[in-house]
Amino acid sequence: xxxxxxxxxxAWFSFARERLWAKSCRPVRCSLLxxxxxxxxxxxxxxxxxxTWIAVLGVGLGVAALVVVNAVYDGYIAEIRARFxxxxxxxEVFGGRGGMEGSLRGDERFxxxxxxxPGVEAVAPVIKRxxxxxxxxxxxxxxxxxxxxxxxxxxxxxxxxxxxxxxETEGSHAPGPGEVVLGVxxxxxxxxxxxxxxVAITDFQAREGGGRPQVRRGTLRxxxxxxxxxxxxxxxxxxxxxxxxxxxxGVGPExxxxxxxxxxxxxxAGAIADALAFQLPFSRIETWQEMHGGFFAGVELTxxxxxxxxxxxxxxxxxxxxxxxTMMVNDRTRAIGILRAMGATRAGLASIFLLCGGVIGVLGVxxxxxxxxxxxxxxxxxxxxxxxxxVYFLDHMPVLIDWTKAGLVAAVTLAICLAASVIPALRxxxxxxxxALRHE
Length: 440
Prior knowledge:
It contains 16 helices and 11 strands. The protein is α+β, with helices and mostly antiparallel strands.
């Protein structure tokens, strides 16, 4: 008896579950079926079908534009950031708050103190000052201002990749006594190459009462050229050994203009710099984000402005959804009246046209994603966007698709399409079946 009751109970629950499932899912299936037939109908309604596919195409073009623009900006920022954190130091400690002219003692004791700080991987003292360079073989030849960087070869190899960026030319090597390595663009501007000699004027002082000014100069042999990946650096930077720089500028044996620091996590450079500032209150400390923050802020501002313009394009494209669904409501007034007469609820009719808008949005997003992905692949492989390296640091725009941002674009576009469907859906739901069928 107990087994029979248990079996009957299970049968009753199974029947009730099936009825509830059918009762809850039937309206959804019906709405999906009707909305699909309304959009993909083969009836002779050329104008409605044309406006529907124009709406799909407009949404797809807007989504594709947003995907490509985001990918180009993300690729550019990622490439520039990778070059910054590899070629440049993550933190620089200067001798005083007054600017680069303040010097500090770059002795082993101070360097050891910096190396012991949490998160610090390597440190290197540098001399960083200006000079006027010109070829020795022709005193009236082209001249150019430069930033002369005096480096400790052994320590600098662990802090930056500057020495790894030397051009592989015959006779090219790291600088030694009396030698200098020039940026490729700077060497072209001066008209010199490996093996030539340049004169560096490092100080110029006028004598009191007139007379010939006192000039501090030195002669250096070009032992190599480097390409850092940044045109601005290649155009202005020259580096020598730190002992050679101290001799050129007449400073003491342990004097440094700054100490460059490499940290384990470049994104944590700000926290490490704050900790160092607390221990070195009279030093000026800058991170790579602070030194180049204006550049990244400008890029982000440009991205936001362009995305807002493209978002307006998507809104205009989604306005076609309103027109398409409104024409659909006007054309199918008789069908709406029949459905209302058969017992369809207002909510059910509204859901049909909301689903129509959702289908248009899904088709447009799928078209936009496919088109955007193909364009990104073409841009990455063909390097189609060529830009002046002197302005953008790169000669082409790299591409990197962030699928999280792409998903956000899809979600926002679908939400806009659904919002655009509300007005036609409400109009269809408010139709009076008697008025809809009166003239039929």
